[in-house]
């Protein structure tokens, strides 16, 4: 039995969960999210909680059990608290700015790089920190990863765009001639 899958999901007040045949809709104070249903997984409301069960004991059902429970829990947390990722832009002359729905990165190229934010994602720049926030956990992570890909951190000087909680393993430079 999946340890994660058998835990009930507590639905806080102000959040409405609608279980349909094709998808599960979650509506809360920050917005609305939906996650697809799976044929091998049964989702039921028991009082204030949502319970995820397997339809049978096949390998696919066992694999999907914990995943579907986590996806529903992420939707509920997203519409109540939201998610955010913090990126740091490190390097001499490196800058980050937010202009409307665009993030403008000056990271050592001959031109500034503009990244258009998708719908539902907000960005805020404070000095070298760039905060990406939204209600969809997957989308927030993907946007942060795409911005990091513009100039990943390099191991010699540590310059580049990195996550705030990421540690960069540093390498020694060239050794001098003897």
Structure description:
This protein is an alpha+beta fold and 178 residues long. It has two domains: 9-80, Alpha-Beta Complex (Outer Surface Protein A, domain 3), CATH 3.90.930.12; 83-163, Alpha-Beta Complex (Outer Surface Protein A, domain 3). The protein is built from two helices and 13 strands. It has helices at 59-80, 137-150; strands at residues 9-10, 16-19, 23-28, 31-36, 41-46, 49-54, 83-90, 95-99, 102-106, 113-116, 121-126, 129-134, 160-163. The longest helix has 22 residues, at 59-80. The chain starts with 8 loop residues before the first strand and ends in a 15-residue tail after the last strand.
Second CATH tier, the architecture of the largest domain: Alpha-Beta Complex
Assign the CATH class of the largest domain. Alpha Beta
Find the count of extended strands (DSSP E, 2+ residues): 13
Largest sheet: 4 strands, antiparallel
Mean pLDDT: 93
CATH topology of the largest domain: Outer Surface Protein A, domain 3
Which outline best applies? elongated
Strand content: 35-45%
List the helices and strands and how they pair.
Layout (H helix, E strand, L loop, with lengths): L8 E2 L5 E4 L3 E6 L2 E6 L4 E6 L2 E6 L4 H22 L2 E8 L4 E5 L2 E5 L6 E4 L4 E6 L2 E6 L2 H14 L9 E4 L15
Antiparallel strand pairs: 1-6, 2-3, 3-4, 5-6, 7-12, 7-13, 8-9, 9-10, 11-12
